Amino acid sequence: MFSRILIANRGEIAVRIIRTLREMGIRSVAVYSDADRAALHVRKADEAAHIGPAVSSESYLNTARILDAARRHGVDAIHPGYGFLSENAGFAQACEDAGFTFIGPSPRSIGLMGSKTEARRVAQSGGAPVVPGSESDPSAFAREVGFPVMLKAVAGGGGKGMRRVDRMEDLQTAFDAASSEAKRAFGDGRVYVEKLIENARHIEIQVFGDMHGNMAYLGERECSVQRRHQKVIEESPSPLVASMPGMRERIGEAALKAARAAGYYNAGTVEFLADNSGRFYFLEMNTRLQVEHPVTELVTGLDLVRLQIEIAAGGRLPFTQEQIALRGAAIECRIYAEDPANNFFPSPGRIEQLAEPAGPGVRLDSGIYQGWTVPIEYDPMLSKLIVWSDTRERAIERMLRALSEYHVGGIKSNIGLFRAILNDPAFRAGDLHTGYLDLLLETHPTLETEPSEELAKAAALVMAKRLKRDEPAPSSASSRWLDEGRRDLLR
Ligand code: MV4
Known about the structure:
The chain is of the alpha+beta class.
């Protein structure tokens, strides 16, 4: 087993990995940029290495500087987390060439799945259903299967270089726009075409393989609640999969077919589009641990980071497919420093107050602390709030309770938005698709996500005045203890 591991990442995922390393008795080495000198992951690690300025290209995305830190600290292995260099085949290879174990799949698997067209070919060759599509003539394809179609970047991901096309007259213009967007974003302007699957759900399968040829799927996650390709809520099990007899086994086996065809090992996620009839199509494969991995951990009882490390050290999968059972329901809310009332504009700044939820069935994977300043240079995700309960209904109730305990002061956050979603009848019914959140925001343009500042000030004034006169509050929640506490706060 490894004795020292470097985490080539930051924020909540670095903290998450450090926690498992501590449990395994492996020393953790954090890396940090100028902007992250005081970050939580640096405080929690056993050792820390400064790797450069705030700009990612000179720190968290800089292979030479990360390998340099790995050498200085004498680590055995490198965990890439998610984002940054986690799906960079060149980085995985460079780690191995420098004598460090890369905790993830082979550079070859990463490379295969990095090209969306190559990934389709691999998945199809393994026997997984893929969306009908073509790499040659988009107009011939559209004539044959009909509109709407979707143009996609070969090097794509995250919706960049993607265009919906509804009419033949628009095809060429859309193709050129998608191609130049892809060229700008990925340095690769190649575009291909697929039949568009309307109002689909985004369902993904967690897979795990070892280097001895064993592989299993660990259930699904439903990630349909998203905005601009940014996931907002994820859950496991998927309400759709849970309602369709045999679907979990069918989609799970399809995921394994795609992964096997890529010679896959370690943690991976196979993404599918699914319609309400239970048909599904391979979309792409993510060759990393994902942000939303905790919902799978809560329903399977497994520590996916520990599994990743054991497999990277040459270990065998410690279970067979038959031993995997999903228990209860888990939901994750991604807490972002952004303002839902102002078009989700990022809201970095100093965390002036922080009250964090806890209690039965509540897990908080956080990268922040009170008094820390959220840097503007990186992704504005602050934390992930994850709950588990025995049923989906109770998990929703538990999430609402946990959210009511969560206060982040000094910056804007999307905490209030989740109350609106979790109380929405369509969400409660599990009636989801990738357009769900846009639709909810459209139909409730004045969605109350935060009590207004004026209202908060007025409430504080009323309370101050009442306490000064020694009048108890008229509400049933009032008591002398409560009043005494409030008086204390106002002193
Ligand atoms: C699609 C699709 C409908 N039909 N492909 C979006 C990002 C990229 N990973 C693939 N995406 C989609 N591909 C076909 N043929 C709809 C989407 C899509 C989507 C997929 C997953 C999660 C959220 C999404 C939001 C909008 C569109």
